[in-house]
Structure formats: structure tokens, C-alpha cells
Amino acid sequence: MPTVPELVIEYVKAKGINHFFGLPSSGVLLHLLEAGRQRDVEFVSTANESSGVIAAAYYGYFKGCAGLAIAIQGPGAGNMVSGAVNVQFERKPVVCVCECPAIDDFGAWGQQADHPSLFKSTTKACLRITKENAAQALHDAFCLAIRPRLGPVLLELPRNLGNCEAGMDLTKTQKPVPQAPNPEALSTICDLVGSFKKPVIIAGDDVRTEGCIPTLLSLAESLKAAVLVTMDGRGVFPETNRRFGCVYIGTAPPYALYRSFLAEADGVLVVGTDGRMKEARWDFDIPVCELVTQPEFPSLSGTPRLRLHGQLSTSLERLSHLKNQFGFPISRIAELRDMAQPRFARPQGARLAVNDIIAITREQLPEDGLIFAETGVFQSMLEHLWPVTVPNTFFASTVGRTMGLTIPALLGAKLACPDHPMVGFGTDGSTLMRLGELETFARTGTVAPLVIMNDGALGTIQAQQKFQRFPNYGLQLELVDFAHIAQGLGLKGVIVDRPETFATALKQAMTADTATVIDARVDPGPYRDSFMATTGMVQ
Q1: Which of 211, 218, 239, 482 is most solvent-facing, going by the fewest CB within 10 Å?
Q2: Which whole-number Å values give the CA distances from 264 to 149, 154, 225, 250, 330, in the listed order?
Q3: Average pLDDT, the chain
């Protein structure tokens, strides 16, 4: 019979997980490390437990399973929570194994904390292993993490179970499968959608996971609709297609491009997404139909005229037989995009602009290459200037607008898919939050280009500070030499300040045998001043 730590390692290895992440303790987690060493499941210590959770979540995502992250009780659990918050917003699967006191040894002393209370609003469930329920608790935790919607699960592991034999009793649970939609409700939705003369479709990532991308393409053509995609749905509709409008962000700014499309539509069909994929309340008074896979998912529009849950394939196939003799004109879709284009134009006179970095990286990275990004002045530009044609390749922060996401996400993804080309986009402020993880890249031999937009400030908030006519205060940073920091850790590091030097550095980084930090010194004034226009705060 395996011990509890041995069972954990054997379980994840059987799922294809060959790495786990975080920071251990001297108790049961040390036994977990040893079990991993003996079974070739490599432990990757990170500089912070938060980074370990993010890296594990993206690693698990690309392995088709939940990742495994570990932390010590008390303060370690507190750090772990911040990582769990990030992956909850980004909808990535991870099991957070946190050491806790022995079952009979809880009390008001030492590093103890109420972990379930800490994690309650952040995780899908809070479970605890005992020696009797070990197999069941482990199974339940990993199943819950990958059940729609993907997310973190807390699994407490008492510190005295290092040498205890694991209870092997197990009743397996099945992943919920979308049921066939109600035929009568589907007919009603077909009638309403069929009445739309100038429809807009908003499509989310469930279109991909349910295997409905070809049907969505057919539906867009038959309805003659303009198609928007959610932040997590990039690529479910090819963004070079003539019917593609823009990325739907659901923000409040009055001039956001998606608002131009919805303002002209007489009806909206929402497919395969939910209310967590918008940043503000829905404020359009037009009829909305929503197709979701599970009834418990929150509504995107708040009060849709009709809402139907069940298999997307059945509903989309039926809807694709509708024929719209009017439609959202292709010429108007192009015109609305062209009207917004000046907001994303390269600033005149800039030595190095984010526009250059995006264009050059898009040119050099293969169509199926992966891009990772976090929040920053550049994020809206990336959502507009980076056309996604291959689904599941664009991994910028969604509604979390998360700082400090890129480095651990890139680390986990590259360890999971070492041969797949990928690039990380970060900022100076966010990189400072994860600086210790550059050492993790060096120690693990993880190879990928990391591009840092370095403007010497917390530029996003500084731009808003200027917009609200507040004085420049508290947001300036020292201009950090990230290239030399990388070199000091044994990585490659280069400073670039012109498009041609960036292009050369990226090309070399794509074929290097060591991770490369490209310290991109963007012109700070034009960089920050672009933020209000690209987000739609001003025209």
C-alpha cells in the first residue's frame, strides 16, 4: 500500500503530470518531494507560492489535467491564495495542496490559519485528506479542478501523514456532459434569432471546447452576422475573417470598439460564454439570446430575452439553417474597424513603440505559436493588433487584468510543451513582482523569449492619473536593467530601443538554448498616452 504522499505522486503521474511547483515544508511536503524524486515527477521550487500556483495551473492546462502546487500552512497558504485568485480569474486548473496541522493537533499556536476561510471565495472547493479518504479526496480534488469552469481547488494535507498508508477506497465521479437542448426552447430561440436583421454574435471559448468552430463559421455566414469573441475565446472565430468585428471586453469606456457594433445591432446571439467574461455591467437595450452549456453559468447580458442550456453543437447546427436576407454588411464591419484604427496607430517620432514589438513578434512567431501576456498599457493594443487564427494560442490576462502573470504562466506552459514556440510579454512593474522566477527559468533550463515593456513606471495607472488631471505622484519606478539581471542569473539578456534591434534580438531568442530577457525600452510618453485611446476612454 502506498503512503499518502506516494499516492499523490502516483496519481498525478498517471495523469501525465511530470512536474509540480511551489515551496515545501519540513513535514509531509518533504515526503511528497521524496516520493516525486523516486518516481521521476520533478519538483520545481519557485520564489513564491503564488508563482508556483500559476505555473502549476498553466502546466496542468497544457497537459490536459489539473496542475499540482504545494505550500506550507499559515503564511505559505496566504501566498498561495494570491496565486489561486489569479488562476480563478484566468480559468486554469490547479490543485493547491497545502500542509495543515495534524488532524488532532489544531490549536491557537504557531503557523496555523483557517485555510478554508482563506480560500473559500477563491477556490471551487476546500477538501482535506485523511489517511482513510486519501484516494477519494485526491480524485475529487482533481476532478473538480477540471470540471467547467476550470479553476483552483484547495486540498489540505495534514503534516503527520508522511508515513501513513493511504486509504484506497474510491467511488469515481463523472465529468458532467452537456445535455441535448430543449427542442421547444430551441425552436423559440430560432424564431427570435431569425427575426434579427442586423445581428451580432458574441462567441466564447466553449465553442472550441465543444468542437463547434466550423458550425460557428457556417452560422456567421448564414446569419450574415458581425462576430465578436470574448477575451478567453480568441481564435474560436478566425480574426482575419471578413465577418470578425473585435474582441468583446465588456468595459465601461464609451468608445470601446465593441460598443460600435452593439450600438448598430438589432439583436445579439451569445454562444459559449458567460457573465465572467466582461468587465462591467451590460448596458445595451437590445434583445439577447444566450446559448450556454451548463445552466449554472452566469448570464453575460444579465437579462437575456431567451436563454438555453445544453449541447452547443445541436443548437448551432439548427440555427445555421436560418437565412438572413439583410445582415450586418461586411463593408460596415470593415468601416467600424477602420474608424478605430487611428487609436492604435504607431506614434509618430517614437524610437521604439509597442506597435513595433507586436508587429515584429506576430511576424516571427508561427501561427500556432503561443503568446502569454499580462495587464499593461499594451494590453488593448495586443487585443486589437494581434489577429488570432488558431484557437487556444492566445493567453493574455482576461477579466483579471492580472499583473505578474506572464513569467510563471510562461514557465509552466514551456515545461509542459518544451518544443512548442512561445513568447511572453510583460512589463517592468509586473516583472519586478516575479523577479525571483527568472532564477527558476535558469535553474530548470526553461527556454523562451520574455519581452519586457520597460517605461520606468506603473504606466497603466499613471495614464489614468494624467487623464483625471491628478499630479504625477507615486507611480514612477527606477529604470531597471533587466538584461543585466538576467545575465547575472545565467540567462541571456539584451536591451533594445529600436525596431530593428528588437527584431534581431527576438529572432536570436527564438532559437537560443537559454531563456532570453529582452528589455524593450519603449518611449514612455507615447506609450502611456496611448492608453486612454486604445481602451476607448477617448476617441
Answers
A1: 211
A2: 32, 45, 12, 16, 13
A3: 96
